[in-house]
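Render this sequence as a predicted structure.
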Amino acid sequence: MSQPKPPSIHVRAFLTWLAIYPLVTIAFYTVIPLLGAFPPPIKVLGLTAVVIPTAVYLVMPNLFKVYYAIQRRRA
């Protein structure tokens, strides 16, 4: 079976936003309060330390699986 065609830059941008927005929102309400009186750069560091690995290792691979499954159905 041939390799699936990679998604366009626009689809990748949308899938990235679809992963990042909910993660940042959740982390904003959970991680930021835990960091209390730390300065903003430290709070952002904590937020990104949670969001980026979660997006890269958990969310994005699953979004791409769903995307490719939809593409296979359409073909």
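Summary. The longest helix spans residues 40-74. Residues 9-74 form one domain.
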